[in-house]
Design goal:
Elements lengths: L1 H20 L1 H6 L4 H36 L21 H10 L3 H8 L9 H4 L3 H6 L7 H32 L10 H23 L1 H42 L8 H33 L11
Helix pairs in contact: 1-8, 1-9, 3-8, 4-5, 5-10, 8-9, 8-10, 10-11
Length: 299
């Protein structure tokens, strides 16, 4: 996924760079309409980004409405109240709901919004490269936002630049031969690749798929934490028993192998207990369709 993100960022930012770099050959040929149209649709792109960014607030508002209707409950069965989440942003909402065993509800609701969310950090050229380019693992939600921003650019400024480059190459040529300029040719190539990426995004619905991947990763992390908490008391007792058993051999020559054997026996018992507990909880989770180990079977 990291490679796809980097390709998307490079194509998107290169598209912006060569779009505005094309103003120079346009001006040399007296093609004033091109820069004017691109400038107009730059504002259209920024407006679309602003409207897409507002979807995040609608998403949090939708979650708040669900809470006001009493749809979400804590693990002990008590109802979550609106005062418990008042003023939370998307990241805080996600952490709150995942922590309380409602991660599946959060991602289920977000799947309805994620294809229409574009945040400023996903939309501002070059800043997004600095923001995400160094990350080893890009959050799936941010990847979806970057793809959405690329699609918005392609269907606003991208189409206009595509038409302007074709007009420059064929409409302004006096000899009848296509007018070749490296900036224009590069801009046409990058715009085409960016447009293809946007069309693939629309066809495959990457954002929704990525939302599911992020959901699975977060819920698996929660399951692991719950499993660790469940196993911790018994593991602590086993480790104490191990210490008591080996204590009698401390300071005795030739008992090193015996101590190691005892420690290995207890370690094997701990691993066996963890694996057995994991299998039992996985069966319970499948039977009850509970999203998180130890959580309620339904909300």
């Amino acid at each position: 996924m990291k490679i796809v993100v980097m390709i998307t960022l490079l194509l998107s930012d290169a598209d912006v760079l060569f779009t505005f770099a094309s103003f120079e050959p346009y001006s040399q040929e007296g093609f004033v309409l091109g820069p004017i149209l691109i400038s107009i649709f730059t504002f259209v792109y920024l407006l679309g980004t602003h409207l897409g960014n507002l979807q995040t607030r609608k998403f949090c508002k939708k979650l708040s409405q669900n809470i006001e209707c009493g749809m979400y409950h804590y693990r002990d069965g008590s109802t979550i109240m609106i005062d418990d989440v008042r003023g939370k942003n998307e990241d805080e909402f996600r952490q709150f709901m995942v922590t309380n065993g409602l991660g599946d509800k959060f991602y289920q609701e977000r799947s309805n919004f994620i294809r229409n969310i574009v945040k400023w950090k996903h939309s501002v050229p070059f800043f997004r490269m600095a923001r995400f380019g160094w990350m080893a693992d890009i959050p799936a939600g941010d990847f979806a936002g970057i793809l959405n921003a690329n699609a918005l650019y392609s269907f606003t400024m991208g189409f206009i630049q595509f038409g302007c480059t074709l007009y420059y190459m064929f409409g302004t040529a006096s000899s009848g031969e296509p007018q070749i300029n490296m900036i224009i040719l590069t801009s046409l190539t990058v715009s085409t690749l960016s447009l293809v990426l946007s069309l693939v995004n629309l066809a495959v619905a990457f954002p929704k798929s990525l939302n599911e991947l992020e959901k699975k990763a977060i819920l698996e992390e929660q399951r692991q934490k719950a499993l660790d908490q469940m196993c911790a008391p018994h593991i602590l007792q086993l480790r104490k028993a191990c210490v008591r058993e080996v204590a009698q051999f401390y300071g005795q020559a030739g008992k090193t192998d015996t101590i190691l054997q005892i420690m290995q026996r207890y370690e094997d018992e701990i691993q066996k207990f963890i694996e057995g507990t994991r299998k039992i909880e996985e069966k319970k989770s499948k039977l009850s369709e509970g999203p998180v180990i130890g959580g309620p079977s339904s909300v």
